[in-house]
Design brief:
11 helices, D-Maltodextrin-Binding Protein, domain 2, alpha/beta, five-stranded mixed beta sheet
């Protein structure tokens, strides 16, 4: 039984289609399809229901998937362990990370790491959506947000302070809000994946949610930053995005007597799956590169001790 056939089946099961599995494996669709057919022939069982919409596993396929996944992970871990015994980090590593954070900060930190460890085969998928690390086969998921209870084990990489920002032009036209009550009447620029309930603050009276008027909803932080700089409204942005514009004076920080909910940049991995030395080393690399406090907070007119 060939390992590439088992790997193709696992990729198909995780991706939900042969086309997506082929993309992830960087193979042609016909090759992946042939490997699945050969595996089914070798096993004497149909593993996948084929339809024009989405593939689904047969009962045999679901049973085989669990055992095959464990076996393949075990083999990968064994190969990685031997490499680590020789002082080498090697083998596949599949991560999911946010688009903007990676473009601005994760990428520049990762490139030297990958040069130092050329035997690591990193697959980095950029996506801001919530992903199921276990079901989608990720070794780790890097995200930005509050660290709440989760079936994943999370390692903190850096704190991530968010601030309210707007352009001088917008504040001159609409006034600068001084408290949460005044903020309520302003135009907001919201991140689509978080929704209109994103403006949550920790005040002396407890947790407060503010629902401003919708000026723009968009699923990209850099577009939010540019929209705020263009005077379209107030945005709540992490300093890893807004920092350069705050230092340049393009955006102004708005103080309303309350702090947004505490958030962090973290890497999470499926609970129960032993994290590899590769993932631990990568996390340590990012933690060192970001610093404590993180370098993007410097000069943003915000007291990082708060």
């Amino acid at each position: 039984m060939k390992l590439d056939g088992i790997a193709a089946f696992i990729a198909i099961a995780e991706a939900g289609s042969i086309s997506e599995a082929a993309r992830r494996l960087r193979l042609s669709k016909s090759v992946v399809s042939d490997r699945l057919a050969q595996l089914e022939h070798r096993l004497g069982a149909r593993l996948v229901h084929r339809s024009t919409r989405r593939l689904s596993l047969t009962e045999d396929g679901a049973a085989f998937l669990e055992m095959a996944s464990q076996s393949l992970r075990g083999l990968d871990a064994a190969v990685a362990t031997l490499a680590e015994r020789r002082g080498t980090l090697a083998g596949p590593l599949r991560l999911s990370a946010p688009v903007t954070l990676t473009a601005l900060h994760i990428g520049p930190a990762l490139y030297p790491f990958l040069r130092r460890h050329p035997q690591i085969e990193l697959s980095l998928e950029l996506d801001d959506r919530v992903v199921d690390a276990q079901a989608e086969g990720f070794d780790g998921v890097i995200r930005h947000g509050p660290m709440r209870d989760s079936p994943l084990t999370a390692w903190r990489l850096a704190r991530s302070r968010r601030v309210l920002v707007a352009s001088a032009d917008y504040l001159e036209r609409h006034g600068t809000p001084r408290d949460l009550a005044e903020l309520d009447g302003h135009r907001g620029i919201f991140y689509t994946h978080r929704g209109l309930a994103d403006w949550q603050f920790v005040a002396a009276s407890g947790r407060v949610q503010v629902r401003a008027k919708v000026g723009l909803q968009v699923n990209n932080g850099m577009v939010m930053r540019d929209a705020a700089a263009a005077g379209l409204g107030i945005a709540m942005l992490p300093l890893f995005i807004a920092g350069p514009d705050i230092r340049a004076g393009t955006l102004r920080v708005i103080e309303v007597g309350a702090e947004p909910e505490e958030e962090f940049i973290y890497v999470a991995h499926p609970e129960g799956r032993n994290p590899t030395a590769k993932l631990r080393a990568l996390a340590e690399c990012l933690r060192d590169a970001f610093g404590d406090p993180p370098y993007w907070e410097a000069g943003c007119l915000v007291d990082p001790a708060n």
